[in-house]
Amino acid sequence: MDLKQLSYFVRVAELGSFTRAAAALGVAQPALSRQIRLLEVELRQNLLQRNGRGAVPTEAGALLLEHGRGILHQVARATDELSRLRGGLAGRVALGLPPSVARVLAVPLTRAIQAQLPGAQLSITEGLSAGMQEQLGNGRLDIAVLYNAQPLPGIELTPLAHEELLLVQAAADAPAARGPIGLRELARLPLIIPSRPNAIRMQVEIEMTAAGCQPDVVLEIDGVPAILDLVAGGAGCAVLSRNAVASAPRPAAFSVRRIKTARAPTLQIRLYTAVSALRPTTRTQQAALALVRASAAERFDAL
């Protein structure tokens, strides 16, 4: 059995699509289909059921997927152990970060990995927490940092840090009194906020519902830079982390205020690290995860 064919099959089965798998693997779809067909001919079994929505494993395919994940992981572990004999760690590490966290962690973390794990190949993907949990499950990510992560089968969560969420206004529009603001007062302000299921959006709505009010959403924008540009231009206010404002091109253009809640002194959101519980991490991935935690500890508040 060819390992390349096996890895191709596992990726198609996990992603449920030849098109998505070809894009993830960086190969042409006809070549990918040909390799899968050769594997099916060798095993004398249909491994994938093609349909209008993609491809799903047959009974034989599901069995091979279970074994294939283990085989590929053992190959990765062997490569990892052999690299240790050469005095270093090697291998690919696919990391997922929420956009606001990436603005803070991506550069220092990349530098730390280049310095301490020169043999590692780091890939950073930005995305929503819900989407990244799915990518952990299908093998597209090895590690993810998630906001307000909820337990899911096959995902191992570890508390990482918390971020305080602040009211962000244009400095020119902010009132002279800049003490903490309550949720009911916040509900009277025009809010520019990401669309659901963004974790910050969900946290704001949960806290406001508990306080008996709702946000006045005037614009839904998925992107911190665009939100900050609109706030600076006077289109409304936002609820973002302090790091999001501090990493803006012109932090002085904004005024921030703490937000009081009934359940905590300030509005906060939690961060977790997440890995797949179905695929044990390699030593390189474990070392990268330790660097993620160290970098976060320097830039976020501990839980």
Describe the protein in words:
- With 303 residues, the chain is an alpha/beta fold.
- Helix content is 45%, strand content 25%.
- It has eleven helices and twelve strands.
- It has helices spanning 3-15, 18-25, 29-43, 59-85, 99-116, 129-137, 183-186, 199-210, 224-232, 242-246, 283-299, and strands at residues 48-51, 54-57, 90-97, 119-126, 143-147, 155-170, 181-182, 190-193, 216-220, 238-241, 254-260, 268-276.
- The strands form three sheets. Strands 3, 4, 5, 6, 7, 10, 11 and 12 form an eight-stranded mixed beta sheet that branches. The chain has a two-stranded antiparallel sheet with strand order 1-2. A two-stranded parallel ribbon has the order 8-9.
- Helix 5 (99-116) links the parallel strand 3 and strand 4 (119-126).
- The protein is elongated and about 75 Å long.
- The mean pLDDT is 88.
Task: Characterize this entry briefly.
With 303 residues, the chain is an alpha/beta fold. Helix content is 45%, strand content 25%.
Strand proportion: 25-35%
Helix proportion: 40-55%
Ranges with pLDDT <50 over ≥5 residues?
none
The number of helical runs is 11
Descriptive tags:
303 residues, alpha/beta, eight-stranded mixed β-sheet, two-stranded antiparallel ribbon, 45% helix, elongated
How do the strands and helices of this protein lay out in sequence?
Elements: H1 3-15, H2 18-25, H3 29-43, E1 48-51, E2 54-57, H4 59-85, E3 90-97, H5 99-116, E4 119-126, H6 129-137, E5 143-147, E6 155-170, E7 181-182, H7 183-186, E8 190-193, H8 199-210, E9 216-220, H9 224-232, E10 238-241, H10 242-246, E11 254-260, E12 268-276, H11 283-299
Helix pairs in contact: 1-2, 1-3, 1-4, 5-11
